What we know:
globular; alpha+beta; 5 helices; 4-stranded antiparallel sheet; 4 strands
Amino acid sequence: MKVTAPVELLLVEFPHTEFTGEILAELTRLQDAGTINVLDALAIRRDLDGDVEWLEAVDAGSELGDLVGEPAGLLAEDDVDAIAEDLAPGSAVGMLVFEHTWATGLAGAVRDAGGRLIDMTTVPAAAIEELAAALSEED
């Protein structure tokens, strides 16, 4: 696995355990457009009795398996155990590791200029909206 752009781990919690494909369709669109490259994915479910089940991409269905391809091995049982510990009965968490392929050219330009990425933080949209609202109140 050769990674040339920033990689991100995304955890998404759902108050249910059944999925209908909308997320998979969007991930496929983003990968086909060259925006991201999905490296690994898995789902963790806790049923109403409290039993935990986890599925790697290749076990979750052919479409997700095709999208991820050969899992990169970046997600493992230790990750599942840590997430499942706080998972409420009847809910699920999706874990996704993806490369920001849109940034490949930028990362190359930074390296060519002698720079190196020292940090990258995802700021939630809600935090930006909250800040924008506070700034507009000051005006």
